Amino acid sequence: MTTELNWLDWIGMMVAATGIGVAKSGLSGVSMVHVLVFATIFQARESTGIVLPMLIIGDVCAILAYGQHADGQQVKKLLPPAVVGVVFGWLWMHRLEAAIYRPLIGLIILGLTLLQLLRQWRTDWQDRLPHSHGFAWLMGMLVGLTTMLANAAGPIFSLYLLALSIPKLAFVGTSAWFFLVLNSLKVPFSWQLGLIDWQSLKLNLLLSPLIVVGLMGGRAIVRRLPQRIFDSLILIFTAVASIWLLSTS
Fold first, then answer.
1. Global confidence as pTM
2. What is the count of structural domains for the chain?
3. Residue 153: CB atoms within 10 Å
4. pLDDT digits (tens, 9 = 90+) for 188-200
């Protein structure tokens, strides 16, 4: 695998691996960088298996940095529907054309971003919706589906936590624990699809130090951001990510 890569590919992957660390520090919209870089180099379907172990490394590092701030109730609440979404995504990966992965996920993320903006503009509009059982199941299934199809669930999970007004440190810690469990559960599915092998794991090992570098840099930024600016940046990054997915499809 690595012998077929040129120097531009390596630079792109190094930037993307660093971006994984930044995304795991709480700036989840940055995750679209590694989604698009690896999808360009290895094609959309194959890239999901290459990226998955690196996401798990990022999750472990994020837990070491923020795990104590996690909201365990939210993790437990969203995991069952997310696992259902992963199974649906695994089944669809046998049937869906790879070309529709990104536009489909882009539309979902854009729609949810607009919904969150509407809630902020009309604070009296459906304040109870984010706390409802149905909303949790809908968002959980979308997270599971999009993470299986394209490792692009970070922005969706972020929108869910934003809707609940979760403080930023709890936001990052909750995301870290949730995705460590969910990404680990995805490994057998990706292995069965032939998306993870020993060659891809060697590539993961080479790039993993940059994930730590990215998380440390992102952590320094997040700790200095006021809550309001943090929330606004999450929305901006998420909106840009959705448009990017649509424009590159």
1. 0.81
2. 1
3. 32
4. 988 988 889 898 9
198 CB-near residues (< 8 Å, 6+ apart): none
Where do we find the tokens 């930023």?
168
3-state secondary structure the chain: CHHHCCHHHHHHHHHHHHHHHHHHCCCHHHHHHHHHHHHHHHCHHHHHHHHHHHHHHHHHHHHHHHHHHCCHHHHHHHHHHHHHHHHHHHHHCCCCCHHHHHHHHHHHHHHHHHHHHHHHHCCCCCCCHHHCHHHHHHHHHHHHHHHHHHCCCHHHHHHHHHHCCCCHHHHHHHHHHHHHHHHHHHHHHHHHCCCCCHHHHHHHHHHHHHHHHHHHHHHHHHHHCCHHHHHHHHHHHHHHHHHHHHHCC
Range of the domain at 171: 2-247
Q: Tens digit of pLDDT for each residue in 157-199?
A: 887 887 788 888 898 899 999 999 999 999 998 898 888 989 8
Percent of the chain whose pLDDT exceeds 70 = 81
List, for residues 202-233, the tens digit of each pLDDT value.
999 999 999 999 999 988 888 887 877 877 77
Residue 233: per-residue pLDDT: 75
